[in-house]
Write a structure and sequence with these properties.
The structure is a single chain. This protein is elongated. With 461 residues, it is of the alpha/beta class. Helix 2 runs parallel beside helix 4, helix 5 runs antiparallel to helix 10 and helix 14 crosses helix 17. Strands 7, 8, 9, 10, 11, 14, 15, 16 and 18 form a 9-stranded mixed beta sheet that branches. A 6-stranded mixed beta sheet has the order 1-6-5-2-4-3, sandwiched between helices. The protein contains 17 helices and 20 strands. The protein is 38% helix and 21% strand. The protein has 2 domains: 129 residues, Leucine Aminopeptidase, subunit E, domain 1 (3-Layer(aba) Sandwich), CATH 3.40.220.10; 303 residues, Zn peptidases (Aminopeptidase, 3-Layer(aba) Sandwich). InterPro entries: Leucine_aapep/pepB (IPR011356), Peptidase_M17_C (IPR000819). Pfam families: Peptidase_M17 (PF00883). This is Probable cytosol aminopeptidase. It comes from Euzebya pacifica. One of its GO terms (biological process) is proteolysis.
C-alpha cells in the first residue's frame, strides 16, 4: 500500500457519494446509466477504460451526511474483497471522504479496510494522499488492522485449539515479543488468592481456568488504564446446558478477552504513553463431574459471595474476580469488554454495543473513542432501581436476576459490585457486534479499534 498513485494500476476505483451521482459526466455518467449505479453504500459498477489499459470502477459511498469512519472502512473492505490475487488498484476513497470526516480519519479507515487479510499479494495506491503526516496515519492503520485481525483469528479458532491454557500461551508469546510484563495465575494460585468465581466456572473442564495479567509500562507513563476481557473459550452453559441451537458458535464467548489481548499486542509499537494493565479471566464452561452446581455459593476476590442460580450466567462470575483484581491497582480508568447478554442485542440490534458505567466521564470517553474508531456503541442506563433483582437469601448477590427484562442493566449492576470504590469504570456489552452468524460469518474483531483509540486519547490527556 502506497501513498499516491501506483502509476499503471489494473483497476482505478472512484468513490462516489449520492450528492455527486447526478453530476457525473463522461464515461462515469454513461456507466452509471447503463448499470443503474445509484451510489448507495457499497454499490459497484466497472468498465474497461477507453484505452484498454485498466478497469475503471465506481463504488458508492452513500450520503455525504451519513458518511463516517465505519462506512468508509466498509466500502474499502468491499473493494479488497473484489478481483483476483496479485492485481493492483488505485482508489481515491480517502480523498473523497476526507472533507466529510477528516483527512486522517478517512485515510486510516481506507487503509484498514483495504488490508489484504487473505494474503493475495495485492497492491493499493491511495490517490490524493502523501506527506509525512499521511505516512504516520498509514503506519498506525497497519498496526490497528493487524490487531483487529488477531482479535478475529483468536475468536474464529476452533475451541479445541484455543482454550484457557493455549490462550495463555498466546498471551505469553505476545508479551515476550512486545516487551510486556506478564503473569499467569493457574488453578492452584487462583484458590490461594481467593478467586472463587473463576475457579467455580472453570472447574467443570479438564483444562483448568487461568487469570492472565499483561502490563504495558512505558517510561514516564501518563496515567494508568486497566482493561478486563471476558474469556470463556467455550460456553456449553455448564450444568444449565444450552440447547443444541444455542450452543452453536459458543467459541465467540471469548471475544472480549481476544479484543483486549489484540489491543495489547501492538501498544508498544504504537508508542502509547499510558500504563495499561490487562486482565483476562479464561475458562471453559463445561458440565464435567466437578462443574459448579446450581445453588453453589462462591467467595470472590473482594470477599463478595455469589449464589450461582444458573451456570449459563457464568461470564459475570469470572469477570468478578478480574474486576476486583484490576481495581486493587487503583487505575485512573477501568474498562471491561464482555459478550455478556443477549438482552443487549435485543435492545440495540446486531451492530451496536451497549456501554454502561459508574462515571459519566468514563462512559463518555469510551463513547467518544468508539465514534472516532468507527465502532457503534450506545450508552444504556446503570439503573440502580433494578439492583434488588440480584438479591439472594444465602449470599451477597445472585448471578441470575430472576427477571427476563432489563438483563443488560442487571448484568452491569452485578459487575459494578466488584469495581473498587472510587474507580471510574465503563462496561461494553458486545454480543451483537462481536460475531456474525451463518456460514459466511464469524468474528469481527469488534472492540480492538475502540480500545486503541481510547488508550491513545488517554495518553494525550
Amino acid at each position: 500500500m502506497v501513498l499516491g498513485s501506483l502509476g499503471t494500476p489494473d483497476f482505478v476505483v472512484h468513490g462516489i457519494t449520492l450528492e455527486q451521482r447526478p453530476a457525473l459526466t463522461g464515461w462515469q455518467a454513461r456507466l452509471a446509466a447503463v448499470d443503474g449505479f445509484d451510489a448507495q453504500l457499497g454499490s459497484y459498477s466497472s468498465t474497461l477504460s477507453s484505452d484498454g489499459s485498466h478497469v475503471d470502477a465506481l463504488v458508492g459511498l452513500g450520503s455525504l451526511d451519513l458518511l463516517d469512519v465505519e462506512r468508509v472502512r466498509i466500502v474499502a473492505s468491499s473493494i479488497a474483497g473484489r478481483g483476483a490475487a496479485g492485481i493492483t488498484i488505485d482508489t481515491d476513497l480517502a480523498a473523497v471522504a476526507g472533507p466529510a470526516i477528516g483527512r486522517a480519519h478517512a485515510l486510516g479507515a481506507v487503509a484498514e479496510g483495504l488490508r489484504d487479510r487473505l494474503g493475495r499479494g495485492r497492491a493499493y495506491g491511495l490517490v490524493g494522499s502523501g506527506g509525512d503526516e499521511d505516512v504516520k496515519v498509514l503506519d498506525r492503520a497497519a498496526l490497528v488492522a493487524e490487531a483487529a485481525e488477531l482479535g478475529r483469528r483468536l475468536v474464529d479458532a476452533p475451541p479445541n485449539v484455543i482454550n484457557p491454557l493455549t490462550l495463555a500461551e498466546v498471551a505469553s508469546t505476545i508479551a515476550a515479543r512486545e516487551g510486556l510484563d506478564i503473569e499467569i495465575i493457574g488453578p492452584d494460585q487462583l484458590e490461594a488468592e481467593s478467586m472463587g468465581g473463576l475457579l467455580a466456572i472453570g472447574k467443570g473442564s479438564d483444562v483448568g481456568p487461568r487469570l492472565v495479567g499483561l502490563h504495558h509500562r512505558p517510561r514516564g507513563a501518563r496515567g494508568h488504564v486497566a482493561l478486563v476481557g471476558k474469556g470463556i473459550t467455550f460456553d456449553s452453559g455448564g450444568l444449565s446446558l444450552k440447547d443444541p441451537e444455542g450452543i452453536v458458535d459458543m467459541k465467540l464467548d471469548m471475544a472480549g478477552a481476544a479484543a483486549v489481548l489484540a489491543a495489547m499486542s501492538v501498544l508498544p509499537r504504537l508508542g502509547v504513553g499510558v500504563a495499561v494493565s490487562a486482565w483476562l479471566p479464561l475458562a471453559e464452561n463445561m458440565p464435567g463431574a466437578s462443574a459448579a452446581r446450581v445453588g453453589d455459593v462462591v467467595t470472590t476476590r473482594n470477599g463478595t459471595t455469589i449464589e450461582i442460580r444458573n451456570t449459563d450466567f457464568e461470564g459475570r462470575v469470572v469477570m468478578a474476580d478480574a474486576l476486583a483484581r484490576a481495581s486493587e491497582d487503583r487505575p485512573d480508568l477501568l474498562v471491561d469488554l464482555a459478550t455478556l447478554t443477549h438482552a443487549c442485542t435485543i435492545a440495540l440490534g446486531d451492530d451496536i454495543a451497549g456501554v454502561l458505567g459508574n462515571d459519566a466521564a468514563a462512559v463518555g470517553t469510551v463513547v467518544a473513542a468508539a465514534d472516532l474508531a468507527g465502532e457503534a456503541v450506545w450508552e444504556l442506563p446503570l439503573a440502580r432501581r433494578y439492583s434488588g433483582r440480584l438479591s439472594s437469601t444465602v449470599a451477597d448477590v445472585s448471578n441470575h436476576p430472576g427477571n427476563a427484562t432489563g438483563r443488560a442493566i442487571t448484568a452491569a449492576l452485578f459487575l459494578e459490585r466488584f469495581v473498587g470504590e472510587g474507580v471510574p469504570w465503563a462496561h461494553l456489552d458486545l454480543v451483537g457486534p462481536a460475531w456474525r452468524p451463518g456460514p459466511d460469518g464469524g468474528a469481527t474483531g469488534f472492540g480492538v479499534r475502540t480500545l486503541l483509540r481510547l488508550l491513545e486519547d488517554v495518553a494525550l490527556g
